[in-house]
Design a protein that fits this description.
By secondary structure, the protein is α/β, with parallel strands linked by helices. It is built from 15 helices and 18 strands. The protein has a seven-stranded mixed β-sheet with strand order 12-13-14-11-10-15-16, sandwiched between helices. The protein has a six-stranded mixed β-sheet with strand order 7-6-5-8-9-17, with helices on both faces. α6 links the parallel β5 and β6. The longest helix is centred in the N-terminal third of the chain and has 21 residues. The termini are far apart. 50% of the residues are buried.
Length: 475
């Protein structure tokens, strides 16, 4: 607990009350801190305040909003070490990864501070004399964001920064497992000069209850959700009653393809980065590996050798590469999936050992076939199933044979193949000879049942703007 005592941003979360939600460290299930469980009446009151504040905020200049966002960026950067410690304590990822996420999360604040000044309208050539046609962009209003536990800062800034830049206000519901990062990042926004009624962080013991409220509340004009496809379906049904604007970043089943002309060491390095970052608990991480027959054995040998060098341990310890899973339920689910895959005929090439607590050794499974359960399951853990393939056209069919369409990756030196495969993969994002593709300057999002809408890039702020058409006549 020495880290908490030395962390100013956590000082407010050491006191337990009758209505507190305890936050646990996945390393040893010790309590990191407490947050308040707000009543539905409290949340409704905050939404009312948010509506009033938004109406004032939308009338400020884009330059004013950008100034506050830039100050927020500076404070997040200044407090990056504290934020990273909080994240590691409540989420489990290694401290170096946590620091990387803080930098990544801050990049969206900086990016959208600039995009605030670029929400341009259009002048449209009129179809008849005496008319002038134009469009303007206006903020949607009060927005709600429901964010996951695997990236507790970046998933918030990627939604909140464009909303604030556009002139909206924000109600944020972080995961109950990792809310401290949300409260800390919001506190820095207040210190930057953001009026507190523009950004509320809310939690309740029942996430379902809060989700229901946010979906049905008529004053909330936009809901952004990052999480499972199953929950996304339920939220979409609930938002239908108020015809709410939504964006959904849902589950993934990313293929990682290594063609026989690929740079194998580079592909191995990319595979490690994509698969085992955050202990495999990312929606865009490689979920199933397809390796062409001619290089299958060579790739597996090098891949296993690299995986065996990964150190599993507490995220605050030096040289830790893979931290714990978020909780025992997640670990039990992955162990059951490994067991089923082995029963279906796969071979355990490396790992699979049950470590103490919520830890799981990075695992490589070979001789996996496309009809096994693991191929159609979002693993969300440090398990890499490797599938052999021969023909490119059949490979594409296997990659696309999923309800998901978020991220995909492949390695090749053939430029013609690179464009051909990229065009035929049914995914919203494609990494070619690269295992990490997320950046604030490019649109992030999927197709099919991985959701819709885009975050980051110039598209990200459009999710929080309405286009108004204006026609001047009799000129």
């Amino acid at each position: 607990m020495e880290y908490i005592n030395n962390n100013e941003l956590l000082a407010a979360f050491n006191n337990q009350t009758d209505h507190s939600i305890a936050v646990y460290n996945p390393h040893d299930d010790s309590i990191v801190g407490y947050i308040p469980s707000l009543s539905i009446e409290d949340i409704n009151h905050k939404i009312e305040r948010s509506k009033v504040a938004q109406q004032e905020w939308q009338n400020t200049t884009a330059s004013h909003r950008a100034t506050i966002l830039n100050k927020w960026f500076e404070l997040v950067t200044e407090h990056s070490d504290e934020l990273a410690q909080i994240m590691t304590l409540e989420q489990g990822k290694p401290l170096t990864e946590a620091k990387g996420e803080v930098v990544y999360g801050a990049s969206f604040i900086k990016w959208f501070a600039e995009e605030a000044k670029r929400t341009y309208g259009d002048t449209i050539p009129a179809p008849a004399a005496g008319k002038r046609l134009m469009t303007t962009k206006q903020p949607i209003g009060v927005t709600a964001s429901i964010t996951p536990w695997n990236f507790p800062i970046a998933m918030i800034t990627r939604k909140v920064a464009p909303a604030l830049a556009a002139g909206c206000s924000c109600i944020v519901k972080p995961a109950n497992q990792t809310p401290l990062s949300a409260y800390a990042i919001a506190e820095l926004a207040y210190q930057a000069g953001l009026p507190k009624d523009l950004l509320f962080v809310i939690n309740n013991h029942s996430s379902v209850l809060v989700g229901d409220l946010l979906c049905h509340h008529e004053d909330i004009k936009k809901l952004s959700f990052t999480g499972s496809t199953e929950v996304g379906r339920a939220l979409l049904k609930q938002t239908a009653d108020t015809i709410k604007r939504t964006s959904m970043e849902l589950g993934g089943n990313a293929p990682f393809v290594v063609f026989d002309d690929a740079d194998i060491p580079a592909a191995v390095q990319g595979a490690i980065a994509s698969k085992f970052r955050n202990a495999g608990q990312t929606c865009v991480c490689a979920n199933r590996f397809y390796v062409q027959d001619a290089i299958y054995d060579e790739f597996v040998d090098q891949f296993v050798s690299a995986v065996s060098q990964l150190n599993v341990g507490y995220g605050l310890e030096v040289d830790t590469h893979v931290g714990p899973l978020i909780d025992s339920k997640a670990k039990d689910s992955i162990l059951a999936l490994i067991s089923t895959t082995l029963q279906q005929g796969a071979k355990l090439q490396y790992g699979g050992d049950k470590l103490s607590g919520n830890y799981l050794q990075p695992t490589v499974l070979t001789d996996v076939s496309s009809n096994m359960d693991i191929v159609q399951t979002e693993i969300f853990g440090p398990v890499a199933p490797v599938i052999r393939f021969e023909d490119e056209s059949d490979l594409i069919k296997q990659c696309n044979d999923t309800i998901y369409g978020l991220a995909s990756y492949f390695y090749t030196k053939d430029i013609q193949r690179a464009f051909r495969v990229a065009d035929t993969l049914e995914f919203g994002m494609v990494g070619i000879n690269e295992g990490i593709i997320s950046t604030e300057v490019a649109p992030f999002g999927g197709i099919k049942q991985s959701g819709f809408g885009r975050e980051g890039a110039k598209q990200g702020i459009e999710e929080y703007l309405n286009t108004k058409y204006i026609c001047f006549g009799n000129l």
